[in-house]
Please model this.
Amino acid sequence: MLTSQTTQQRCPCGSEKSFAFCCEPYIEGQKPAPTAEQLMRSRYTAFALGAIDYLIDTTVPEKRELIDRAIVAEQIQFTTWTGLTILNKEAGSKEDTQGVVEFEAAFETEDDQCILHERSSFYAKNGQWYYADGEVNVRSVA
Ligand SMILES: [Zn+2]
Model:
């Protein structure tokens, strides 16, 4: 599934760590992301690499049925993610059960360059963080 990304390469989430020591263990299901920020980073990486199952599995169960796999697959196919910047975070540590992460993610499509700004809410249950929802704004920077 993730053959385009070798474990020694730097992680797409911009952490400066190698993929193997950053988002890969979470995306491959070896262990849960320990914080809301790490879950958010790994979901960005999953978007960048096309790991749709991970995106669905890390969405709160109540919202999973709203996800249209075909639409997500199309978004992944036509979008190139070019950078992630964490702007702010509230709670979301190992001891918390909820957290908020505000970030900007840069992406390109065939005819546009955009910045997605999102304030995302996350919940933790039994040591697993889940994405709940977010306030999303997309602006063109082309
Ligand atoms: Zn990462």
Notes: The chain has a mean pLDDT of 94.
